[in-house]
Each structure stands twice: as C-alpha cells, then as structure tokens.
C-alpha cells in the first residue's frame, strides 16, 4: 500500500457521494472560517474529515464498517485517534444521504451556529 499521504490524495480525488454530501453540509462552517481537511492522514490512518483546530474527526461509514472485522478495525482506529486527543464522530452513509439534517444538528451541538463557533 502507498504511504498515507499518497493514499489520502487518491481518496480525495475519488470521494464517495456521501463524502461529497457531507462536504456540502459543512459548507457554512467552512465559509465562516473553520478549516476542514478531507481524507487527511493522522498517524497510520487516513480520516474522512478533520477539523484540526477543534481536534474533531468525522468518519462517514459504509457497509464494510459493520462486519466483525470492520467494527474491530474502527475500534482500534478510534482508540488511536482519541489517544491523541481527537474526538471521533461517525455517521453512516444513510445518515448523511437521507438524514443530513440530523448530521447537521449533531455538528451544531459541537460547533454552535455557523459563524458563531464556541
């Protein structure tokens, strides 16, 4: 496998539809100056989205995350990220695609109104 930086570049070019939808959901915070990165390497992992200033990682999980192996891998990955001070939020593809307002509401709890981040 390629190094994490090269792998992250590939993932940014090949975003899934739910990832593109989430990127649009956070537009108001991005426009307000809250910096986000897509497919960013953190240690040995590449996270879907990270707001480094808030140490928040957001993962958009597809079906493969719900196998026994996927759950175990995600637990290890989350422990690694939390051990480095990050908070990890997970949304399913369906959360983002069919219940985007719910994902937006969760982010409002974390950041407050776009433009008034606490």
UniProtKB/TrEMBL annotation:
Transcription regulation keyword on record: no
Keywords: Endonuclease, Hydrolase, Nuclease
One Pfam family from the record: DUF559
A molecular-function term among this protein's GO annotations: endonuclease activity
Residue intervals of the DUF559 domain: 6-104
InterPro entries given in the database record: DUF559 (IPR007569), Endonuclease_DUF559_bact (IPR047216), Restrct_endonuc-II-like (IPR011335)
Gene3D superfamilies the record matches: VSR Endonuclease
SUPFAM superfamilies recorded: Restriction endonuclease-like (SSF52980)
Lineage: superkingdom: Bacteria
Protein name (Swiss-Prot/TrEMBL): Very-short-patch-repair endonuclease
Provenance organism: Devosia subaequoris
